[in-house]
Amino acid sequence: MRPVIMQVFRHSEQTLKRALISKNPALVSQYEKLDAREQQLMKEAFQPTSDLYGPIILQSQSDWIISHPEAPQDFEQFFSNPYRKIPSPEKHSIYLLAIGSLGNTRVISEEYTKWLKGYCEAFFYGMNVKLLEPISVSATRCSFRVNDHTRNLQIHAGHILKFLKKKKPEDAFCVVGVTMIDLYPRDSWNFVFGQASLTDGVGIFSFARYGSDFYSSHYKGTVKKLHKKSSNDYAIFDNYFIPEITSVLLLRSCKTLSHEIGHIFGLRHCQWLTCLMQGSNHLEEADRRPLNLCPICLRKLQCAIGFNIAERYKALVRWIDDADTPRATPKPSCEDNVHLPKPVEAFQDWKE
Ligand SMILES: [Zn+2]
Ligand SMILES: [Zn+2]
């Protein structure tokens, strides 16, 4: 097949309007109850010249929409899905659990987990976000292996999900494990970025491949093949390589977490506009995805949680501004200036 270069996936104004507002009178009147500023933002979805949202641009044959055809989900389909998990007053907490260390020191690991927590608090504004006490890989009793090709350590995603299900507190809407160890879903698979069970409300996501040198020849996480007797010895995880927490890694992990928790709320892959909920098949495509939800996905999340849209954006901006204050990482990388302030500008345009 010929590679596709810059194919624009554009919907008509009519289609987008219908996907966002729907024709169902109850949902139309629900939409009309949004305040004027919220509606003004939502309407940006159909402005062909919008600075905030644009059509999805496909850049390669291996992009998600081409390689994984799936039915699009408009707001009404989301709203009326009987299997959708809805947070209740009793189950209103998103729990994060670090599996293995996330940084090279305990302090970095703790700081990083707090940044993720803060980001989720702003993104899922109105939900409680709580941290479970971090645990070691050995405490999960999951299987692990050395990948035959990349020679890095990997843990079994399905075993971790079973473990998380048992750990789930009473008030949990979901429990999400995060780790710097790479994951595999089954023996025959090479790797997976993450895996979730929507019905159980559990997910596990690895940021191992988000470090700057995972795909380089000098990647330091390679180990020798495991011998039979060592395949039960978790000591191999002690002092195992952990990538440096750069701002790129932080950005990628925030995107992944919010995208994946979005799935737990019942949001399917977005095929309407450039959006955080677009599917991604590879890291380059995930990087192209914005931090932001398109209005259609934003309305879905708002309907699930019930936040005020402006308040939520303010919380996100606050989190981004806070990210510029001195932190535990010894040398803030120059990439900070490139990656973190970017979304702030987009939000400020909108506020005006
Ligand atoms: Zn996804
Ligand atoms: Zn979307």
UniProtKB/TrEMBL annotation:
<keyword id="KW-0378">Hydrolase</keyword>
<keyword id="KW-0479">Metal-binding</keyword>
<comment type="function">
    <text>Probable zinc metalloprotease.</text>
</comment>
<dbReference type="InterPro" id="IPR052009">
    <property type="entry name" value="Archaemetzincin"/>
</dbReference>
<dbReference type="GO" id="GO:0008237">
    <property type="term" value="F:metallopeptidase activity"/>
</dbReference>
<dbReference type="GO" id="GO:0006508">
    <property type="term" value="P:proteolysis"/>
</dbReference>
<comment type="similarity">
    <text>Belongs to the peptidase M54 family.</text>
</comment>
<dbReference type="InterPro" id="IPR012962">
    <property type="entry name" value="Pept_M54_archaemetzincn"/>
</dbReference>
<keyword id="KW-0862">Zinc</keyword>
<keyword id="KW-0645">Protease</keyword>
<dbReference type="InterPro" id="IPR024079">
    <property type="entry name" value="MetalloPept_cat_dom_sf"/>
</dbReference>
<keyword id="KW-0482">Metalloprotease</keyword>
<dbReference type="Pfam" id="PF07998">
    <property type="entry name" value="Peptidase_M54"/>
</dbReference>
<protein>
    <recommendedName>
        <fullName>Archaemetzincin-2</fullName>
    </recommendedName>
</protein>
<dbReference type="GO" id="GO:0046872">
    <property type="term" value="F:metal ion binding"/>
</dbReference>
